Amino acid sequence: MTATTWVLEPDIFPNSHAPLRAAIRDTGQRLVEWDDAWWIDGIPGNIDNANTFFHGSLGNAARIHTELGWSPGSYCNPSVFCCSSWYDAAREWLLHSDWRFLPADTFVDTVTDVAAALGCTDRIFVRPDSPLKPFSGRVLDLADISLAKLDHGFYFDDESLPIVACPICDIGREWRFVVFQSSVIAGSAYDATTRSALVDRPASNAWNFAQSVAYGIPSPVDAYILDVCESNGELRLLELNPFGGADLYACDAVAIVRALSEAVSDG
Q1: Do 43 and 28 reside in the same domain of the chain?
Q2: Between 77 and 69, whose confidence is greater?
Q3: pTM here?
């Protein structure tokens, strides 16, 4: 395997980066620690644009995709991970069967009509369209809707920020899978309540479901994160996320490093 460079951002994902660092070293890949000062001082000359991967904060992953010529880089093209870019293609597997895309201020001004169209009577779920998550997804009471309830003025200033409004769905267990070239290469069960993670295996129902989704939808990029959840006794697609800015939880770090690095070497 030709050596590749992995640039990891320190202190972002301490639990999942420990095994990732070990896998990078054990497979003979080069490990470099990211430094935010590089945005001012310039990227060190010993980091090549080619055969370089980044994993760290979502903000840096998006900026690296936009501003640096690294390849493969962070796999974080924000536009292809917007919900409005892939929801329709994933409708068959998606947690939500109905939704509305609209600007935040329009949502606030027309929430009664939006809620009625979605069949929401007292509460509604709202999340950003953007994968960069300028605010966290949340359940809101229809009687108390405002821009401030979406953290406007605190996390974002654009009143017309695109959002997604959906009916509320009950969610049970959750899983996170790493997809590379339409194949699931690693998986992790995740308990959001206890923030604990456990490796998921290829034989599991959740893994098989994730693989069906990965085969069934157009891949936004070569490597990405596919989140699965249980809802009303069924497995459903929760969301897609950029690989370079997502926690890997208990996903098999060796499998990830080998798959991505070997593909670069073979290419």
Answers
A1: yes
A2: 77
A3: 0.95
